[in-house]
Amino acid sequence: MPNHSRKRVMPAEWERHDATWLAWPHHEDDWPGKFESIPWVMAEIVRRIAGADDAPRRGERVEVLCNSPEHAAGVRDILERAHAINDNVRLHVCPTDRSWLRDSAPSFVRTSDGAVEAVRWRFNAWAKYDNYAHDQRVPDFVAKTTGLPIAQATRPDNDQPLVLEGGAIDANGDGVVLVTEECLLDQRTQARNPGLSREDYERAFARWLGAERTVWLGAGCVGDDTHGHIDDIARFVPPVGPLGEAGAETVLLAYEDDPADDNHAASLENEARLGDAGLHVVTVPYPQPVVFEGQRLPASYANFYVCNACVLVPTFNDPNDRVALNTIADLFPDRPTIGVHCLDMVWGLGTIHCLTQQQPAPVR
């Protein structure tokens, strides 16, 4: 359990949520030629998180951002047709540029009294795109809607807003954070915070996330549009230890064992780094390369999402789907593990974790 003597700590994703935040897809250019199937994948995600079938009490609120009242009416129709709506689902009018709320929404932490606080990062569309004005306003909308306090994360070197996305960090709920050097330290490609050092980031994570330790991996997965987000390669899971004993810090690592595959070298290095950091590693394979229109896509089972009712895992019509589902199910025995077909969704260069942002419950 988290140590609430810290001023702030980012809870583990498997701790109880009050809600999950989503933004309904509308930017068709993210899925050219495949957009028509995307709303139905979203409906399945909403249905499972809200517990719309048989687990409404195990589910949680699903706060869905829609671009306009007309858009919200269309979303409601889709959810009703898919039997994906119950009292847990709330629709809001809040324009967005894209639907990757993991990155544009605030992250949430608990303060020393167990209350929840939002942390606003500066979002600049992964230092790659120029249309993000709506997405920049999402954190304030979330804070206003929830009534939660919101803090602006700043750089430790000059107190300017810190550029970061939620997909770039993963926390174990007890003061350890995972990140990649490719995403945060590369100053040539998609540089988020020019001039910020490794030590500067660690100071920022200590202040805003309660991180006592930051574990740095190397590169992310091939095809990742974000240039190295951690949530496609390595995720904290509940501690089990190598022999099942409680207390070991455990990481699920996407691992490619084919030496001819471009993900292989990074898999080897990241496994070694996790071992050197004293973390227990459980590996899950990548699916076979997913390629569409000549582009390799960032298909990874590590982009799963843990909600109150279940664990949602992206699947890709691949033999390794079964391996991934069984591996993740063993790590979360307290809730069902459910596959969600994401072969079309990943054409947008993200899947389930990229779409979701959890709002943890307070601890009293």
Give your account of this protein's structure.
The structure is a single chain. With 364 residues, the chain is an alpha/beta fold. The protein has one domain (8-359): L-arginine/glycine Amidinotransferase, Chain A (5-stranded Propeller), CATH 3.75.10.10. The protein is built from 11 helices and 19 strands. It has helices at 38-50, 69-81, 101-104, 125-128, 133-136, 138-146, 181-184, 198-209, 264-276, 320-331, 352-355, and strands at 8-9, 17-23, 61-66, 89-93, 107-111, 116-120, 150-152, 170-171, 176-180, 213-217, 234-237, 250-255, 280-285, 291-292, 295-296, 305-306, 311-315, 337-341, 357-360. The strands form 6 sheets. It has a 4-stranded mixed β-sheet with strand order 1-5-6-7, sandwiched between helices. Strands 4-3-2-19 form a 4-stranded mixed β-sheet. The longest helix is centred in the first third of the chain and has 13 residues, at 38-50. The model is unreliable at 1-5 and 242-246 (pLDDT under 50).
